[in-house]
Each structure stands twice: as C-alpha cells, then as structure tokens.
Amino acid sequence: HDNILIISSVVDSGSGSNRLNNNRSMFQIQGETFDKRLASVADLISQKKNIVVLCGAGISVSCGIPDFRSKDNGLYNNLNYQELGLTCAEDLFDLNAFSEDPRPFWKFVRTNNFASGKIAPSTSHLFLAWLDEQQMLLRIYTQNIDGLEQSAGVDEDKIVYAHGSFKGATCMKCKAKYQSSELRLMSKQEVPVCHRRIAKKGKISDNTAKTNSIEIPPERRSSRKRSSNNNSMAEEFYPPPVEQGCCGGIIKPNITFFGEKLESTISRRLEEDYKKADALIVMGTSLSVAPMSKLVGFLPDNVPRILINRDIVQVMKSSTQNYKKQDEFCLFDACLLGNCDAVTQAIKAKMSNRDAKSEYEHYHSGRLVTDNNNGTWLKNQPRESVLLFEGALLSAATKEEATLPAQNVVVHCDHCENEIKDQIFCCKICFDFDLCSLCYPKVKLTHADGKHEFTIEST
Ligand code: CNA
C-alpha cells in the first residue's frame, strides 16, 4: 500500500454489484421528479450526525486550481510540461522528478499561487464548513493539498490531509520544519532552500556540488523514464547558493508526492472513524489514486454513499483489496452529477428548507438521468439514483472507454518496507496494511495481537 497507487481509469464492472445483490440495507431515492429525489437525498443527509467526506481536486476547480484528470481542463491534458522542464505532466508531483530538479514543481506552485494563501474557497468548501457548523461532520479526508477546507472554516481537527498540504514544509537535508507563513515567503524564490544555521561543524552547502539534492532510497525511485533532451530548463540543476553556515537543503512542502508513503496516522484515524461514520459523501474525485480510493469500499456496507461529481466514478471493493477482480464494485446510493458547487448549493437549500428562487435557480435545470436516454448505459449505477445538474458529464457512463484499470500498482510491505513482488498478505480489518511473504509469518502474530485475519493476493 505504501505508495500512492494510480489506477488509471474508471472501470465498468459488467452486471450486478455487491451492495445491490447482497440485499444490504440501502438508501432508496424516493420520488418521481427531480425535485422529490433531491429532497430525498437532502433528507438522508439531514438525519446524519457523523458524515465522512472524501474529496478531491474537483471541489477546487472553481477556485481556479485545475484538477489532474478532467479531459477538458485537467492538468494532465493541458500542462505545458515541456516548458516547465518535465518529461510528462505526471512528473510534476513525482518524488523522483522533484529530487532530480525541484524547479518545475516550485515554478508551478508560484504560478498557481498554491502557497500564497490568496485563493478563496469554493461554494463546495463552504458547504463542508456549513455541515461542520451543523455538527453533522465527522471527518473530511481530503486528497487536496490546497488547504481550502480549513480556509472555508472547517475545524482543523475534522480535516485529514491525506496527501498533506502547504501548511508546512520540511528541509530535505536537515529535516528542519517550516510553518506556512515562512513557506509563503520562501515560495517566492526559484527553489526555496533551508536557511537554518548548522549547529556544529560539518557539511556546509556548497553551490558547486549537489550537496543538497534529496536522498531517496533507490527502491522508492520511480521507474518512469525521462528524456534527456527536454527543454529550456533541462540544464543540470544545482542548488542555489546559501549563506555560509546555513543548511542549504531543498525545501519540500509537506505534501505526499507519487512514490511516497502516506502517513500511518491516516489509516489509524480512518479505522477509528469506521465505527462512527453514518454517511459518506464523495466529492470531486476520480477515485483513481489509492489507497484513499479504497475508503469507499472500506466503510461498513450500511453506510449510505453519495457521489457528487461531474461524472460517474467507480471503485473496486476494497475490503478484499483485490485489484484484479472485475466484479467487485461498490456502487453509490445516489449520484448527483454536475459541478459540485451547483450540487452542494442545491442540497443545502433543500436541507435548509429554503425555496427562495435565487437558491433554486442553480439546479432548477436539474434533470433525472432517465430523461437523458442518449447512449447505452454501461455502468451498474441504477438510473433512478442519478440526478443531473449543470456541468454533468455522462460520457463515462455511456461510452465503453475502459474495461480495466492499468495495474500500475506498487505495494510495499508495512513491516520491512520493501516492495512486494509476489504474494501480498492484506489485513482484512485495517484500512491499509500489507505484508510480504517473509514478514507475514512473524508479524501476523503481533499485528493487533494476532486477532486480524489476512487475505492473500498476488501482485
Ligand atoms: P482527479 O483525478 O483530477 O479527478 C478530479 C475529479 O473531479 C474528476 O472525476 C472530475 O470529473 C471531477 N471534477 C472536476 N471539476 C469538477 C467540478 N467542478 N465539480 C464536480 N466534479 C468535478 O483528482 P483527484 O482528486 O481524484 O486525484 C487525487 C490527486 C489530485 C491528489 O493527489 C491531489 O493532491 C491532486 N490534486 C490536488 C489539487 C488541489 O489540491 N486542489 C489540484 C490538482 C490535483
């Protein structure tokens, strides 16, 4: 699990679903009209006191921060990576690429004001703050690194930054910690470097040598190939000069790059929340980055799951952690497809029982998916559970775009930290705990006092 895993595309699961077929208690969207079905979703949310939210880049798109994978405006399709000095857009958040040359990343951060603290939260962020105010929110697991949930007013304790945030930074060399206010100033430099004084005599940064390049163990290095002939910034990177006696190490914001471990506290927190969660709202995420994508399958089956996204997304059943079985999918109890700002505004209006026209006009153009009979419906998601809002994209549900996710999965043993190359022993209880065949025999006895069962998978 240790690395963030990329599952490249949404998958169509063929017929049937675990949740529907097993007759588990499932929330039914009631009503013949769009308005009644929306009210039904709003009613459901209103009754909950411990809502878990899993959110992603989509909720910050209206703040001017592009997501990764949207075909129209997403970074992966639109980033001028060559101009930045990268081989591909995915390298922007790749630890190996950053360690080789942090300039593209920092240039991107400056251009997009990531560390500036100047970006205002969206209606969707404010909706989350409102849920918190109503004491309905148990936790937000955000994959976003922009910190806008907190800017919107959500209590800090209610937010888990699954992939870290710009609220702090660390020197890669001496591990000195920097606060967001310091990071804000430092991020104006081409590459922020550590200005902490070195206490004792030792290595002092020398700008003629790569003394402050980031050290990452070879096994964590990405296998992605880089071209040698890229572009304007392709000349060798040397750390900027630093004052004598200062560390000079490269500063890395406290965000999780591809190729890095997620903090184990995230899994522990989720395991605690498991017992309390009474609803799950998934917002603005393609669910293509594991392990967070597994949260949807991890929560108990009787927890209603609501999707707010431009398109339908699906994930594999994660409790078995079986990435290869096509037929193990979780379905959402309701899919509210469209721009999440319009959707959240509509839900909030319904929950507040307000019918002022101005509140309604954002979603009065809303439709039931049954009104939209174009194309073959390929997803398992029952049509009656899908509501369409402004900005909805149905193509993923009606076009056979992908059948299987690319198995670009790297799993590391939670004990020895080596990459698992053969069998993976996955804990059935923990959110994200895997062992290799060498560690399994000894660790299974100590892990949770030997009380947790494991399943076996092959890589
Ligand atoms: P993604 O894979 O790019 O998916 C975004 C999803 O949001 C897609 O399914 C879109 O259809 C949907 N979407 C886009 N715009 C809207 C909208 N206005 N309303 C509703 N839905 C919308 O991004 P994920 O978050 O799933 O991937 C996780 C990555 C993205 C994390 O590691 C993040 O760090 C990373 N990321 C974060 C930010 C940020 O912090 N704002 C920006 C870009 C990428």
From TrEMBL:
<dbReference type="GO" id="GO:0070403">
    <property type="term" value="F:NAD+ binding"/>
</dbReference>
<keyword id="KW-0520">NAD</keyword>
<feature type="region of interest" description="Disordered">
    <location>
        <begin position="207"/>
        <end position="235"/>
    </location>
</feature>
<keyword id="KW-0862">Zinc</keyword>
<dbReference type="InterPro" id="IPR029035">
    <property type="entry name" value="DHS-like_NAD/FAD-binding_dom"/>
</dbReference>
<dbReference type="InterPro" id="IPR003000">
    <property type="entry name" value="Sirtuin"/>
</dbReference>
<feature type="binding site">
    <location>
        <position position="171"/>
    </location>
    <ligand>
        <name>Zn(2+)</name>
    </ligand>
</feature>
<dbReference type="InterPro" id="IPR026591">
    <property type="entry name" value="Sirtuin_cat_small_dom_sf"/>
</dbReference>
<feature type="active site" description="Proton acceptor">
    <location>
        <position position="163"/>
    </location>
</feature>
<dbReference type="Pfam" id="PF00569">
    <property type="entry name" value="ZZ"/>
</dbReference>
<dbReference type="Pfam" id="PF02146">
    <property type="entry name" value="SIR2"/>
</dbReference>
<feature type="domain" description="Deacetylase sirtuin-type">
    <location>
        <begin position="31"/>
        <end position="357"/>
    </location>
</feature>
<protein>
    <submittedName>
        <fullName>NAD-dependent protein deacetylase sirtuin-1</fullName>
        <ecNumber>2.3.1.286</ecNumber>
    </submittedName>
</protein>
<feature type="binding site">
    <location>
        <position position="247"/>
    </location>
    <ligand>
        <name>Zn(2+)</name>
    </ligand>
</feature>
<feature type="binding site">
    <location>
        <position position="194"/>
    </location>
    <ligand>
        <name>Zn(2+)</name>
    </ligand>
</feature>
<dbReference type="GO" id="GO:0008270">
    <property type="term" value="F:zinc ion binding"/>
</dbReference>
<keyword id="KW-0012">Acyltransferase</keyword>
<dbReference type="InterPro" id="IPR050134">
    <property type="entry name" value="NAD-dep_sirtuin_deacylases"/>
</dbReference>
<keyword id="KW-0863">Zinc-finger</keyword>
<dbReference type="InterPro" id="IPR043145">
    <property type="entry name" value="Znf_ZZ_sf"/>
</dbReference>
<feature type="binding site">
    <location>
        <position position="174"/>
    </location>
    <ligand>
        <name>Zn(2+)</name>
    </ligand>
</feature>
<keyword id="KW-0808">Transferase</keyword>
<keyword id="KW-0479">Metal-binding</keyword>
<dbReference type="InterPro" id="IPR000433">
    <property type="entry name" value="Znf_ZZ"/>
</dbReference>
<dbReference type="InterPro" id="IPR026590">
    <property type="entry name" value="Ssirtuin_cat_dom"/>
</dbReference>
<dbReference type="GO" id="GO:0017136">
    <property type="term" value="F:histone deacetylase activity, NAD-dependent"/>
</dbReference>
<dbReference type="GO" id="GO:0005634">
    <property type="term" value="C:nucleus"/>
</dbReference>
